[in-house]
Amino acid sequence: MLSTYEINMTTNEVKEYLDISHFTFNNLMKQGQLNPINKDTWRLDGSFLFKREEVEKLKGELEVEGITLYQASKAYHISMYQLEKWIEEGELACTIQEHRNRTTKFVKEEDIRELVQQIERKNT
């Protein structure tokens, strides 16, 4: 049988596992996405404790698919304006997700790679 320590995670373990800052951690608690199991006794326990399965579920929800427009512009040397233009014209599909407390556009890396290759073929 698993011990309580293996079933539960401390505040620092949760932040490390989710790879989030203390600020983001506090926001997730305020929004009710992270609920400690020892809300009343956390001072005696030394830390908030969270169920491991709930933290793993939250990690799946927080994962983003693709890369941000900024990451794409840096990786493929394309201006943000050009990426926005492709999205507006329907040449590039994007998903809008909450990321780092901001609404952010995400694109699939394969789609950008294909568009860049098409442009390179036209230019040669």
Task: Characterise the protein shown here.
With 124 residues, this protein is α+β, with helices and mostly antiparallel strands. It has two domains: 4-62, Multidrug-efflux Transporter Regulator, Chain: A, Domain 2, CATH 1.10.1660; 67-123. The chain is built from eight helices and five strands. The strands form two sheets. Strands 3-5-4 form a three-stranded antiparallel sheet. A two-stranded antiparallel ribbon has the order 1-2. A hairpin with a 2-residue loop joins strand 4 (94-99) and strand 5.
Keywords summarizing the entry:
Multidrug-efflux Transporter Regulator, Chain: A, Domain 2, 3-stranded antiparallel beta sheet, 2 domains, two-stranded antiparallel ribbon, 56% helix, 5 strands, alpha+beta, 124 residues
